[in-house]
Structure formats: structure tokens, C-alpha cells
Amino acid sequence: xxxxxxxxxxxxxxxxxxxxxxxxxxxxxxxxxRGGREYGQKHFPWMVALHTGLLIACVVEVIVAGRPFLxxxxxxxxxxxxxxxxxxxxxxSSLGAQWNTRVIVVPGAGRVQNRGPYRLTWLPHPNYLVxxxxxxALPLVHTAWVxxxxxxxxxxxxxxxxxxxxxxxxxxxxxx
Length: 176
Prior knowledge:
Elements: H1 3-33, E1 37-39, H2 44-64, H3 71-95, E2 103-105, H4 126-140, H5 145-174
Antiparallel strand pairs: 1-2
Helix pairs in contact: 1-2, 2-5, 3-4, 4-5
């Protein structure tokens, strides 16, 4: 894979994220119209910054550090990246109108437990697993290993350490 092809993959990923934000904005508006309450608003800008930084860092590391494309690593990581994307849409479609990039609870809305990956009781937050996998795989498509490590650590320590407990508190409101 050439550097140009990798940059195109990153741009495509960024465009896809913008599409997700459109879905989220539509779902947020509908949730607020139904009396939804948002949790953890303060961490959301940090989440956006981290995910934007991932895409930028992928390109910068490959160009500045001259990272090579290694077929034995890049091809499996590309497949994992594409599978992660498919899993994201499985999650989005499973949650339907309740999917959001924000944590919003609508009074009276039930917790999704009978569709898609949410049927797996041992995996309460499948989206965060997919994000973690993708955060490793996407940079490694073109051997941006520093980006993969830094994103993974920051995602785990600075973001998910706050996001998952926030979401768990919000989900407890849905449970009678």
C-alpha cells in the first residue's frame, strides 16, 4: 500500500466518522425531544479530540517517520480495520435510534439487550472493544506503531476510564 493509498484510507475513515456524527446528531435531537438526559458532557470534547488525533497521527507518523508498508502486517491490519468498521455498523443498527456518540438516557426507553452484540451478556460495551481494536489496527496498516500505542493508552486511561462508568450510571436509569 502506498502512502497515498493509506492517506486515502484515513480520509475515508474520517469521512465515515463525520457520517456517524450526523446519525448521532439526529438521534440526539430525537432523544432530547423525548425528554432525554445527557451524562458526561465534559468528557465528550476530549473523546472527539482523541479520535481526531488518531487519524492525524496516523498520517503524520507514516510521513514524518517514514514508516514502511509491510505486507505481512499491513494486510491483516487492513482486514481487521474493515471488520471493525462492519462491527461498528452492526452496533449502530442494533441500537437503532438509541445509538449515539453521547451518553443520553430517554425516560422509559428500555436497554437494548436482545439485538446484535448486545445479546452477549459477557460483553456489555461492544463498541468500546471495537474502538480499541480499530485504534490498534488502523495505524498498523502502515506500521504507525507509536500512534497505535499512544492511542490505545490514552483511550484506556484517559477516556474509557471515565466513559464506561458514566455510561454504566446512565444505563442503570434504564433498568427498572
